[in-house]
Amino acid sequence: MILTILIIFLSLIGLVVLHELGHFILAKKFGVKVEEFGIGIPPRIFWKKIGETIYSLNLLPLGAFVKLYGEEKREKDPRSFSQKPIWQRALIVLGGVVTFWIIAAILVSVIAGAWGLPTAVGDEVDHTLIDPKVQIVQVLPKSPAKETGLQVGDVIQKLRTEELELATNKVGEVIEFTEANKGKDIILTIQRGKEIFDTSLVPRVSPPEGEGPMGVALARVALKPYTWYQAPIQGTLVTGRMTFSIIFTLGEIISKVIRGISLPPGLVELKGPVGIGEMAARALERGISDYLWLVAMISIYLALFNVLPIPALDGGKLLFLGIEKIKGKPVSPKIEQNITAFFFFLLISLVIFVTLRDIQKFF
After folding, report:
1. Max Cα distance, the chain (Å)
2. Distance between CA 99 and CA 280 in Å, rounded?
3. Which among 274, 297, 265 has a CA at the least distance from the CA of 351?
4. Nearest 5 degrees, angle CA 287-CA 290-CA 293?
5. 227: how many CB neighbours lie within 10 A of its CB?
6. Which of 348, 108, 84 is nearest to 230 (CA)?
């Protein structure tokens, strides 16, 4: 348990450190003086000055930071951040965001080469598939599957009643079996990570439209491995597809909200550090490849979140740079700092609220 917590903690901190490293590298590239690169939030525990930059390890393990000369207070110096052309400052800001996508692409590439990428496949016979299986990809609220404790990622290995038993890796056969045994007690053999166990449920005779007797969405998934030179290409392509899929899904959600269309229960659910930690622990139980996949997904979400035009985020800094470009002069430092501080307070409040809600779920 302690090792699991440590792995998850170091992974999430590592994402933030690499994000700040993106800012750091481009700042150095464009000749901006980097005053400090810190891991954690001060006060300092340990620090060392190398050249002109202080590298510090700080007491509060809540991320990392890069302190750029002339970023908070405009300095008339060629090495000041504020004196660099807008396009250079924009690239320095974007460096951290792009780093999240690079991390995701690298992780997916490693998965593609070492284990193979999970691919949805049909039920037809294909001897080239590695470990085809029927996997639960959605569990609907208030369904028999939800009540019995089934989870997204669970694999259905067998189904049986008093009269019949079916071992299968085909979605169609699972659907046929449950349709034929609606209203009867069915024993499911489930694989969850390394654990294999039996659980029972009664498929609904008259389920709500579009939900099915068990209340799950299923997919037949198999692994497709790639060579060392194909893996980076696939890693980049899959990262791009996941990014556009997330954007498309969020766009649909926003469109429905604007049009007053109700969303399915559980479709939108914010996760705080505790909730993310719980998801990561479950992924780690299923195996290293599942865990790396989750970290890649988190990295993509962080990239998209960071690029939003909200002050206190990288997207907010880009917004102020855009205003400066349009007006021909920068926004007042005091106004920018006050707006940023206000939105930072809102974001921290949101994180605290979501974290407390996640903790309540354990009780």
Report:
1. 83
2. 21
3. 274
4. 150
5. 10
6. 108
Sequence-distant (6+) residues with CB within 8 A of 170 are 123, 134, 220
pLDDT tens digits, residue range 202-225? Answer: 999 988 888 889 999 999 999 888
Q: Whose CA is closest to 223, among 92, 113, 82, 62?
A: 113
What is the C-alpha separation between 276 and 359, in angstroms, rounded?
Answer: 11
The model's pLDDT over 121-167, given as tens digits with 9 standing for 90+, comes to 888 877 667 888 999 999 998 899 999 999 998 999 999 998 889 99
Query: How far, in Å, CA of 43 to CA of 204, rounded?
Result: 58
Q: How far is CA 45 from CA 55, 114, 132, 251, 321, in A?
A: 11, 38, 50, 44, 34
SS3 breakdown of the chain: % helix, strand, coil, rounded to 5? Answer: 50, 20, 30
Cα 192 to chain centroid distance, Å, stands at: 20
Global pTM?
A: 0.80
pLDDT digits (tens, 9 = 90+) for 278-335: 888 888 887 898 899 999 999 999 999 999 999 889 999 999 999 999 998 888 888 8
Contacts of 186 (CB under 8 A, 6+ apart): 159, 160, 161, 177, 178, 200, 201, 202, 203
- The superfamily (CATH) of domain 120-224 is PDZ domain (2.30.42.10)
Q: CA-based Rg of the chain, rounded to a whole angstrom?
A: 25
Cα(58)–Cα(102) distance, integer angstroms: 26
- Cβ atoms of 171 and 159 within 8 Å: the answer is no
Q: According to CATH, where is 2.30.42.10 located in the chain?
A: 120-224
Indicate the pLDDT class of residue 85, thresholds 50, 70 and 90.
very high
